[in-house]
Amino acid sequence: MSEAETKPDVPPAEQPKGPPRPRWLRRALFTLAGTLLLLGSLAVATWFILPRLNLAELAAEQASARLGRPVAIESLRVTPGSRLGIAISGVTIANIEGGTRAEMLRLDRATAELDLLELLQGKPVLHALDVAGLSLLLERNAARAANWRFGGQESAAAGGRGWLPLFQAIRVTGSEVLLRTTGGLMLPTRIETASLTSEGLHAHVQLSAAGSYNGVALTLEGPLDSIATFRDSATPFSLDLTATVGETILSLLGSARDPLNFDGVQGQIELRAASPDALLALGGASTEGVPRIALELSGTFDRQGDVWRISAPMGELDGAPFAGRLLQLTEGASGEPDAILLDLALTRLDLNRMLRAGGHEADGTADLPLAVFTAPDPLIEARLTAETLLYGALEARDARFAGAVVPGLVRVTTLAMQAFGARISASGQLEADAEDLRVTADVTMGEAEIEPLRQALGLRELPLAGRIEGRLAVIGRGRSLNAAARDAHVSAVLLMSGGTIAREVIEMASTDIRALFRTARGRTRLSCAIGVLDMKGGVGELAPLRLRSAQGMISGLATFDLNRNRLDLVIGSHRQTTGSFALDIPVRVSGSFADPDVQPAQWSGAGRARLSAPDHTAPLPPGLRDYARRSPCFFAGGR
Fold this sequence. Notes:
639 residues
């Protein structure tokens, strides 16, 4: 038999087994498999459950701790994925103490998509952010603390700008930014649509926005610097912005050290405006009575803290070129007005055209309105020059103006010009007086040629030639310059030193008997002349009126009415100064300025007594009295 046949059969169950496995390993494998299964289940559950969780309370606590102010959130939900989705709504951030409303920020809703893998590596990449219904109030409290600075930071640089994530598109709709100035003025910016787009870390950010500022519709667009530059707070952030408001276009090409606060800005600015309406409306000023005149302006723009400045401005005003040194706005401290400084040189300033275009006209003549404010905002200081100045019948050259608008006053420190053949300078002020406005002015006239003055006043040809000088004190009341001038009280002293007078006038005034047989020819030199004027509402008196020459001295009294262009003058010679042929009979000149009657006059006893009395200066202000006494023709003690 074979060996196979002789071996007995062995049941399979009884066949020999390997070494047994330890029970702990078996349990560990089961535990690991269960844990992996559980983690996988949790991840899957989290994937589906997380969008249903409201993380608002947790996020609000974290945000409040980081900002140092209460933050409230109604809803915050996260949707996981390769692009992590976030939806948030009902967000408020409390304002600083002393703010004008409880919340600095209100947000209706916002959604965002972030790259999950980049976020896990601490490098957030924002694919899209959509914001709707944002209301942001920016203001300072009475202690000058800014509500946009958190955690005790006193400057944006303290926290740096590295927080800005890499993004592709940020869109904002139906939102507003409210800026309250330190003077309390609210400047609202309404954002209908706005977007910021970027194609990479070092690519330019493109800005496009449409909305309104201070109720005026505008658009803003242009390329900005890159995200990388923004993150580097040590590098200025470049700006290339163009704002359009109707026919008004404002562009800025420059950079900012603090772009979020638009501070530390330097660059070139250009403005083109068909009228100032849009600019005034943007600043919250009324456009009533403002002329529609074109303005073009360019210069170097600079903003440092509270000071906004355009240096070396140049351009055109109503088609006339101008240049200058400075346009500056200084923001006032809390509760204080802003301050504007203007320093411009104009080639031509046609006030007639401007005032008529603004509706400031009376009886067909341009009329400058006057106003005084108890608390003006802004305060204004102006230094202006104009090669040509037109106002009413005035056509002046080389005009200079320096003045200021301050509480309760308009102060004019300098008003100088060449006009009517004279060099005129004045100073004065405008102030409230009971129910009207009161204008006071001190005027000096020098190097005035008589002929241009005669033509300006509409007088017939005068026998006088030479230069005249004078000083005037003016007090007027009215709501416009023409009204104040029309009813003004004017005191004046007019002097001549030198010049000539026609000999026939001396002979006529002294009734020289030789004038009966011949007409005096030629002119004789004047050694002096004086006239003291007192006028109210265009009606006045000129007394004394005196001229002295080698042929004698004549004196006179005159009354006149500028409203009717009429005068009444009586002149006569002094016996002790005329020759033996003089009859010393007075002459009366009366009638219209253009064609008066000339005839002998009866010099009354009272008239001769007044002629012999000392010159009366009591109605004159003290400064004019001293000025009158300078003339050799002034008689302090009578004759």
